[in-house]
Design brief:
Keywords: Hydrolase. The chain has five helices and seven strands; from the N terminus they run H-E-E-E-E-H-E-E-E-H-H-H. By secondary structure, it is an alpha+beta fold. The longest helix has 13 residues.
Length: about 180
């Protein structure tokens, strides 16, 4: 039997990740990509189109795990590049501050956020994006909505796991909802 050494720090095997998810909360970041005008007012909100593990298509925020020994800022940049492409040009400050903290539970109803796989704690950010976005990896498309369109019931019902609630919180945070 050959013993393999993990050469990428911070990554868990699928079995190790499943075991960790069953025992402790996992740290995530959620990012709401936005376009802003010269005055810093949000004019567009970018939402990904994804296919879930069950085959359903939904709208989603940029989201992903923070790796062991990875700074939160670096995790944000990694996930934004992974989902939006290397030329998205996100403007993440040197010391980013989340607009909220979302707790996802595998049981419905504890919070508005649900993840059937785990208890996850996510730091949520609004991130201005200035470059050309080309969805990659498991993102099928990226659609830019006006803030009003993004807050609409039609778009909200296309989001799963409570991400529609998180999107509305982001829009309120940047002054786009009363």
């Amino acid at each position: 039997m050959t013993e393999m050494t993990e050469t990428t720090p911070g990554w868990l095997s699928p079995e190790e990740l499943e075991s960790a998810r069953a025992r402790m909360p996992i740290l995530y970041v959620d990012a709401v990509p936005v376009r802003v005008d010269d005055a810093g007012v949000v004019t567009r909100v970018g939402l990904l189109l994804r296919i879930g593990s069950d085959g359903t298509v939904s709208r989603a925020l940029v989201s992903g795990r923070v790796l062991h020994y990875e700074r939160v800022r670096d995790a944000l940049l990694r996930h934004l590049e992974k989902d939006l492409g290397p030329t998205a040009l996100p403007r993440v400050p040197a010391s980013p501050q989340p607009f909220t903290i979302a707790e996802y539970f595998p049981t419905h109803g504890i919070t508005p956020y649900h993840d059937p796989r785990q208890h996850a704690v996510s730091l949520a950010y609004v991130v201005p994006v200035a470059g050309d976005c080309r969805p990659r990896q498991d993102a099928l498309d990226l659609v830019w909505f006006t803030p009003e369109e993004a807050a609409s019931p039609l778009v909200q019902q296309e989001m799963t796991g409570g991400q529609g609630v998180l999107l509305r919180q982001a829009l309120a945070y940047v002054g786009c909802l009363p």
